[in-house]
Amino acid sequence: NNRTWYGSDSAKDLDALLTRRNFLIVLDGSGSMRASQCSGNLSKINAAKQAIAAFAEKIKPEDNIGLCAFDSRGVTERSPLSLNRAAFNEALQQVRSDSNTPLGTAVALGYSRLQKQARRQLGYGEYYLIIVTDGEADEGNDPRNIVNKIVTESPVVISTIGFCIGEGHSLHRPGLTLYHDATNLEQLNQGLESVLAESEFSGAPDVK
């Protein structure tokens, strides 16, 4: 059985750079992201957008970045993994804050997009799933099972920036996922920068 974490069917269009790094952001567009506690005079969604846009500027030009989000338009891919920062930023700005919190579905979608890209890179390269959220998942949409699957079967590094929710989140899984608690825009930026710092090391990051 030659099936790997990204599937056995090879992609028709191989990437020109097999060692490319891939950063897939999952952004929470739940209604609570409209609130402005923790982010000064900014709503949480706007603080998150600012921090993510800054992060997109910091990654290397040859790194892919993509966006999945959930809001009243559903749980969908908003910008596919690519080098196109303008398309990414445009999609980012259009995320609303007006839905519930289907975290499990969103994480699974992000993972499927990383798998698709891994087929284009024959599994080489690095894969990061970065979740920016301010709340717990809806009942029946707990992300724990999909996180277990990702961590068990793949090299994907999962980082969660928990915005204003403390340490007791279902995505805070010491030894499995990287978790950063952010209570303001500066800490949001630091959380995203730490993902970048972890990605500068070769191989798996040191999970504390």
Q: Profile the largest sheet.
A: 6 strands, mixed
- The SSE order reads EHEEHHEHEEH
Strand order of the largest sheet: 3-2-1-4-5-6
What general outline do the C-alpha atoms trace?
globular
Strand element count: 6
Low-confidence stretches: 202-208
**Helix proportion of residues, in percent?**
25-40%
N-to-C span:
34 Å
- What's the Cα radius of gyration? 16 Å
What does this structure look like?
With 208 residues, the chain is an alpha/beta fold. 33% of the residues lie in helices and 22% in strands. The protein contains five helices and six strands, in the order E-H-E-E-H-H-E-H-E-E-H. A six-stranded mixed beta sheet has the order 3-2-1-4-5-6, with helices on both faces. The protein is globular. The N and C termini lie far apart (34 Å). 44% of the residues are buried. The model is unreliable at 202-208 (pLDDT under 50).
Blueprint of the fold:
Blueprint (H helix, E strand, L loop, with lengths): L20 E8 L15 H15 L5 E8 L2 E9 L2 H9 L9 H18 L5 E8 L10 H10 L3 E7 L14 E5 L2 H16 L8
Parallel strand pairs: 1-2, 1-4, 4-5, 5-6
Antiparallel strand pairs: 2-3
Question: How would you concisely characterize the structure shown here?
Answer:
The protein has about 210 residues and is α/β, with parallel strands linked by helices. The chain is built from five helices and six strands; from the N terminus they run βαββααβαββα.
